[in-house]
Amino acid sequence: MLEYIILGFLMYGGKSGYELKQRMTYSTSYFFDASFGSIYPALKRLEQKGLIVYRESVEGSKYKKVYQIQESGKVVFLNWLEKPIIFEKARQDHLVQIFFYEFLSKEKAIENLKMFVEEVGSVANQLNEQKEEATAKHSIYQFYYRYSTMLYGIDYYRFVTSWCNELIHKLETDPQTAQSECFRNI
Question: Could you tell me which of 52, 47, 45 has the C-alpha nearest to residue 8?
């Protein structure tokens, strides 16, 4: 997937590895993110496949590789893009932990859930700020698909926060939601 994201960003014009990471951080990181340690090997693979090339430049005292998509890269990217969307169950690692929270004390589960809600809220606030900035500076119809994925992210984070808050409320108010018998026997 990372290689297609890189090709997609290069469809807009040449970018350095750093610029690709910045674009990803600002846009796709809410549903797909990658580190520099993943981006540079992916760029190397794309180059080896002949899908991109780079030119070297020096800006100030900084050496920089600017990657450009080749026609073959455009073909590969557009062929991938034209394929029907396949729904995949998303990895939601946070749910794995919550699934086993019956082994925690109720107090610790509530504490962890509240910290998680804060973290998700912070990310949601960043995305909301980006939405406000985007709507103030651009016509949403000019970038409608990208804007729509932003709305999806906002709704997703709103759902996660709401779901966690309901869970916290239930844990705080309903004595039936105690830790499991397994925990008591440990």
Answer: 52
